[in-house]
Amino acid sequence: AVVVASAGDGSTMLQNMRVPIADLPWLEVLRSGEILIIPDLLQVEATSSMMERLIQEGIRAVMVAPMLMEGQLLGFLSLNSATPGFFTAEHREIVEEKANVLAIALHQIYLRERVYRQNLELEQRVAERTAQLEAKNRELETFTYTVSHDLKAPLRGIDGYSRLLLEDYLDRLGEEGRYFLQSIRAAANQMNELIEDLLAYSRLERRPLKTDQVGVQRLAQALVAERAVEIKERGVRATLAVPDVTVTADPDGLAMALRNLLDNALKFTAKVEAPAIEIGGRETAETCILWVRDNGIGFDMKYHDRILQIFQRLHRSEDYPGTGIGLAIVQKAMERMGGRVWAESEPGHGATFYLEVPK
Q1: Could you tell me the strand order of the sheet in which 287-294 lies?
Q2: 352 contacts 344 by C-beta, under 8 angstroms
Q3: How far apart are CA 220 and CA 240, in angstroms?
């Protein structure tokens, strides 16, 4: 026990004194919450070293009040007098009131100290986590550089030499040889697409998030215009039903998400006799929900979560080319701007992908 403060007739015995708990003869009484009054220390049979020191200082009467908060003993308020039998019932009431006030004050001090320590620990953890994230970002930048330079260089060589073989030595190659070279070129192109999508996913992870006001109707119109040639050549019936509303979002991220969903719909309606795609939307109180609906091959809903993960595919690349990264980019883009993506589908009856964007 540490003496926090003391006052009296000039005695300095108690100032800054540290008292072993075992030397507090009234400790167990205080735990009960009752005030202890000792009218005369000389009349007490069992004494402790602290009581002996009080007697040496000329103290005869003692009144001790517990400072309790939520059942926990935080300390005690002790009043001492050189006059035996000094403390009265009136003294007891006053001391009890003051002890309660002091208990509240001590409790607040403990809470402040605890919050201060927790803040220090939190700042330390944040600093450590920030350092870890910075290290991971540096690793990711190194990986991105390696992918974009060291891996694409040999691919360019494979593509270039295979093209030269087809152009300059076509007459020397048999049908099987031409098939082999065309397969090599197709594999190289597929690998190049995969690298480009990986780089897009990586850049999305690393680039700072920028939010702005985005008009969703204008954005949808621009994306359909980008794919106008393919839509016309394939005879796709494209419908726009997007409300003229503004949302708070990352312009590039939202455009990337919608573009990937549109490309996805175009891809999976390739073998449909009358392909149809709808880009629609509706408002809620706090969000705008956009969707891209198609009448393509669809998928089983038990694979719903799987299709949004990177490298996850439900169909053979020979039937529907792709890298398995497009929908993962959609998921990541929506997560970063505080939105979400989900889908509804049935095999053979098309699919609808939804984007929920905060206003």
Answers
A1: 237-241, 276-283, 287-294, 351-358, 340-345
A2: yes
A3: 8
CA dist., res. 294 & res. 209, Å (int):
30
- What predicted TM-score, i.e. pTM, was given to this entire model? 0.56
Q: What is the pLDDT along the chain (359 residues), one digit of tens a residue?
A: 887 777 776 555 566 677 787 777 777 777 778 898 999 999 988 777 778 888 888 889 999 999 988 888 888 888 999 999 999 999 999 999 999 999 999 899 989 999 999 999 999 999 999 888 888 777 777 777 776 677 778 888 888 888 888 888 888 888 888 888 888 888 888 788 878 877 777 777 777 788 899 999 999 999 999 999 999 999 999 999 999 999 999 998 999 999 999 999 999 998 899 999 999 999 998 999 999 999 999 988 888 878 887 766 666 666 676 677 888 889 989 999 999 999 999 998 999 999 999 88
Non-local CB neighbours of 188 within 8 Å, separated by 6+ positions: 155, 158, 159, 162
